[in-house]
Every structure is written in C-alpha cells, then in structure tokens.
Amino acid sequence: MTQNYDAGNIQVLEGLEAVRMRPGMYIGTTSSRGLHHLLWEIVDNAIDEASNGFADAVTVTLHQDGSASVTDNGRGVPVDEHPTLHVSGVEVIYTKLHAGGKFNNENYAYSGGLHGVGASVVNALSRWMTVDSYRDWGHYRMRFTSEENPKTHKIEAGKPDGPLEKIGNTRRRGTVVRFLPDDRIFEDVHWNSQQVSRRLQELAYLNRGLMITFTDERVKEADKRTQTFCYEGGIVDYVCYLNVGRTPVNDDVIYFEGQRDTIICRAAIQYTVDYAENLFSYVNNIPTPEGGTHETGFRTAFTKAFNDYARKIGVLKDKDANLAGEDFREGLTCVLTTMVKNPQFEGQTKGRLGNSEVRPAVEAIVAEKLADWLDNLKNQEMAQHIVGKAVKAAQAREAARKARDTVRSSKALEAQPLVGKLAAARGHHPEDNELFIVEGDSAGGSAKQGRDSRFQAILPLRGKPLNAEKKSIDQVLSNEEFRSLITALGTSIGETFSLTNLKYHKVVILSDADQDGAHIRAILLTFFFRYMKELLVAGHVYIGMPPLYRVAKGSQVIYCYDDKELEKVTKKVGKGYTLQRYKGLGEMNPEQLWETTMDPGQRKLMQVSIDDAAQADRLVTILMGDKVEPRRDYISEYADFNRQDNFELPEGQVNPMRKALEKA
Ligand code: 1YM
User: Fold this and answer.
1) Full domain range(s) for residue 65
2) Does any ligand 1 atom lie closer than 6 A to the CB of residue 339?
3) Which of 207-221, 433-447, 650-664 is the most confident on average?
C-alpha cells in the first residue's frame, strides 16, 4: 500500500493547542496537583519580580467563580511591541510557548525548573484569562479565551479576544493575572485553600520581607477570608517557626549567606535538645526533600568545620578519629536555600538537585562562613555546646550500633518469639507483598484468617507502641513493637535504612476509627517519619479504611465509610434494613474484614504522602512532642477536625498525616 502524505494528514501541533493535547507533558498531571501547578506558575512570575527587587507585595485570591488571581506591584508585564513578532509583549508572554518560560534569561536567572514552563501554558489550560499590566503610567488589559471554533468544532486554546487595550492612565505599577482553569482539562477544579495557604506561607519565609496576602473569597465568614504572610527575618524566622514545639538550646539562630559565581546559598540553623536532624532544603524556592548536590556540599563543609574546631579547642586529640557528620547534626533544625541557574531536578519525585557544580560552590560558601562564625568570640559557648553534644551523640551511636546488630542478626531473630507475631506472606515478590499492621490481637486474629496469605502479611500490635518523637535511636530499638516492625520490613532504620531490602511494597496501617486508633496511627506515622522517611517519600505507606457501618437488607449488604455515606445509603434502600455499627476492627469477622478492608478489589486505601516535609515535621513535633503549650494552641486554632478536604482528592493521593495527627 502506498502512503499518501499530503499536508492534510500530517498533524501539525500549533502553539497552545499542543498544551491541551498533552497537558501532562507541561504540568505533569491533570489531577488536583496539576491544577495547583497553574497557580504556582503565575505566582512564580510575581515572586521572580519581587526577588529581582522590583516588587515587595504579592496577593493571591481564590474567587467564588472558581478563578484565581495573582497580583504584584512590580514593573508590569511589558506592553510594547515585540521586535520580531510584532505583537505586544503581553501577547507574546501569554500565547507563545517558551522553552525556558522567560525570553529574557538574564533578568530571570533563578526560575524554578519545575515551574517556569511559562504563563502561556496556564492560558492554554484555562477557560479564560485576563492580564492587567500597570506600566509606564498606563493601565493595559488583554483577555484570552479557550473556546470551540463553531466551524471546525476544535477548541482554540488561549486565543486573544482582541489586541492589548489601553484602559486609561494610572499611577499604579504591577501586574494582575486572573484565570479560570478549564474543567474540560482538569478532573477536579476545586482549589485547596489549605494547600495554597501553606505554600504561600513557605514562599513568604523564603523571600525575606515580601508581603504575601492570601484571600479565599469562597469562605463564608468575612473575618476568616484573608491571611497575610510577611517575615522580616526570612529563613531565620522559618527555623524558629519549625522549632515551635521543640526546645532550642538557646535563642540563637546561626545565619549566613554567600555567593560563588552565580550560585547563592543561605542557611539558618538552630540547635534543639532533640535527637533528630531536620534539614529542609530548597532550590530556587522549590523544596528538595530528596536532597542533592547542595545538601552534600553543606554537610561536607559542616562536618569539616566542626571537626576542625573540635581539634582546635582540644576536644579531639591528634590520635582521635573525626566525629561523624550526623553527630554534629543531632538536634539541628536547618533551612538551606540555594539559587541555581538551570537547576536539574532528579529522582522519583524530582525532589533532588543534580547539578554537579553546586556541590563545591555550596561547600566553599559554608566552609568560609562557618569558619568565620566559629572564630567569633561571642559564639564560643554555643560552639562548645555543639561539640559536646556531638561527642555524646557519637557515644549513643556506638550503643545504637550494638543494639541494631542484635536486631539485624536475622538468624537469631527468626528463632525468637519476636517475629512470631508476624504472619508472613507466602509469596517472595516484595513488589506484590503487603504488610498490614493491625491494632490489637483480636483484629490481628481476624486479619490473619481473612487475608490472602499468598501476598498479605499481618503484624498485630499489642497495645500502643512508644512515641518515637523525643526518643533516641537506641530507645526505639529496644521497644519490642518497633523491633518486630523493623525486622518484618527488613529495611533497618535511620542512617542504615535501605529501601532495597524492603520486603513489602505496601505497608498498610490498620487501626480503629476511634481516638485510640488515631493515636496509634499517629505514633506509627511519627516513627516512619523520623526513622524511615524514605518509606513515606517513596509512597509505600498506606492507611486502611475500615467501614463504620454495615447496612443489610435481604441478601444485599452495603458498607459505609462515614455518616454522610450512611445517610445516602439508608435513604436509597428504604425501610426494613438492619444496621450494624463497627466500633472497632475486632468486631468484624474474618470474611467481613477481607471484604471491606483487605480485598484489593474492594478496599479503600489512602496513600500517605509528604507533600510538605517541613510542615509535616513541625506538626509531628507539635502534636507528638512534649511541649504542652504549642499543642494546645494548635488544637484550639484548628479545632475543626472533621474537614474532609484531604480525603477527597482524586487519585487517592492524600496527605492524611495532618488528619491522623490532629486526632491524636
Ligand atoms: C501576577 C504575575 O507576571 N509579573 C511580572 C512579569 C514580568 C515582568 C514584571 C517584567 C519582566 C521584565 C521586564 C524582564 C515578565 N516579563 C516577562 C518577559 N506577575 C507577573 N512582572 N519588565 C517586566 O524580564 O525584562 C515574562 S514575565 F517575558 F518580558 F521577560
């Protein structure tokens, strides 16, 4: 057969239509996450204008009609004619796809690689968009729509309603962009107020002195609509905020910043009496929970500076080996931000910086600045304290190593009654295997009988495991519940944690839908968060959702997971049904437990994600730590525990961390 290539059957994707054809290529996903990506794209442009020194206020508003708007008080987007394209700057920026987002790379040195796909992508994926530019004493406006062409029946993406229009004269400066995400593209066009608010707060911390105002006009109570975030101390304030709930060694926050070539690095560090290390790093305002070259540079320089100092003051003698980096970082809370041209994000969730030139640059900056800090007379007390703490940490590490060796000598373990509690799965493929951590022996018994033992394992928990927050690694390792869990998972914990040995790719927490169950869930999540964070980051942890009610009529049985659902179902089945309320998992027989909670074909699982590691950390600290005040404050501030917003996101991608902890 001969193929006939004429112009008509060669598909030429023109301009913004390409974005609508493959939105995933530009914004990753059309789920709720992708929706919010649109907003961050525009917010990034406003923040760029601020970090370049032209604006100091940004506002974000979620409107009742579902649209969002972003305002800055910068220079206003360019309105003059583009030299070669012969249309206004506004039209170019919002209708042409730019590889790097911006066409003037010099001024926009530090755009995030994740975002920075360009405002035109936002336009392409919106039903409409308006741009107001206040520039050179003029107010200019342009409107774009994505509508079906009545002749071709194709949607024309982000088409100008008309040319850029001058509305009038003004003394105002800046840009306002408002857009309505297209519900023909996105599965869910509902803005998550909390998600937006959190990210804006984070951006305010990362951009010292920038005033960010957030208004959610959908909120009924007028006095709860608007929040403002502005931090004169920037990341120093951020570290203090993260340490609410912890006990800092003193009020000092170590702060420094420096530059090598085009790489800028800032760090704020505060020591607490805790054991955990909390390093939160960012590149161009984007979190890097998986670390990368900037973190490596920071850690290398940090360890070296403190070891040199320990020798200088004689705590380490010539014959002594250096202390380990982790020893110096025990109890440290640190925010590290780096600005990088053309960042390369790698890793499963694109959360790791890959640029090799960044490591030596950050290392040099940190080495120089930390040496200065350690030289300063007024810092001697603090510096000596840190070294003293590190020496103790090294001793504890040695003790932990011994304890861990006991746990790891698996031959000895198999013989011990320790894992006798575990009903292992028969299959040997970790990817297929699931471990259910079940609250209580009686539920554990039902689960053991009800499961599909080919791939499901059951680990019943007796009573409450200990709260891992505030516990050192050797204390955690001496706890029997945790020891059996660690052994069952096969990963070890802390510094020696390794995902490659993970025996179950789904780890499901199964606890009752009551206060106690929520507490156990919080304790387990805290443990994973503190000692097996990668397990959470890689998405291996799930929360099982047992139903609350069983409605039976004749041969028909329907399970309901909350009161709302129950109401719907009972209305539908009409009179004459029997209702059973499950107070706990223990009340279900093995078949019911299988049907409702364990059968992959029917059950509901929620995947735990840490979309904001810093916030999650702060919350774990507040709610599981030993300070009463911050916990009480938090609980009275967020007393509405029944908000379901985290539970209704599409794709089952939720962050129940908050909810589970709130219940604790
Ligand atoms: C609410 C969103 O986009 N603000 C914004 C964007 C730009 C400028 C100012 C700007 C940049 C430059 C010169 C420059 C943009 N400019 C461009 C482009 N807020 C928002 N504020 N004058 C104004 O970089 O030289 C893209 S965005 F393409 F012109 F560089």
Assistant:
1) 17-229
2) no
3) 207-221
Q: Rounded to an integer, what distance in angstroms lies between the CA atom of residue 370 and that of residue 305?
A: 7
pLDDT, position 406: 67
DSSP strand pairing (286-287 vs 278-283): antiparallel
Our mutation pick for probing the ligand 1 site, out of 45, 56, 81, 123, counting the most ligand atoms within 8 A of Cβ, is: 45
- Whether ligand 1 lies within 6 angstroms of the CB of 47 is answered as no
240, burial (CB in 10 Å: exposed 0-12, middle 13-18, buried 19+):
middle
Asked if residue 653 belongs to a domain, the reply is: no
Write out the DSSP string of 321-333.
PPPPHHHHTTTEE
CATH number, domain with residue 319: 3.30.230.10
**Tokens (6 digits) for 208:** 């010292």
Does residue 70 sit within a domain?
yes
Parallel, antiparallel, or unpaired for β 174-181 and 434-439? unpaired
Q: Does residue 647 surpass a pLDDT of 50? A: no
Helices (H) and strands (E) in the chain, counts: 22, 25
Q: Within this chain, do residues 385 and 504 fall inside the same structural domain, yes or no?
A: no
**Ligand 1 midpoint to CA 42 (Å):** 11
* CB atoms near residue 103 (< 10 Å): 15
- For residue 471, the domain's CATH number is 3.40.50.670
Is pLDDT above 60 for 404? Answer: yes
Measure the CA–CA gap between 637 and 640, rounded to whole angstroms. 8
Degrees to nearest 5, angle at CA 519 with 418 and 281: 90
Tokens of 179: 């857009």
- 385 and 428 belong to one structural domain: no
Q: Name the CA radius of gyration of the chain, rounded.
A: 28
Instruction: Please indicate, yes or no, whether residues 523 and 381 belong to a single structural domain of this protein.
Output: no
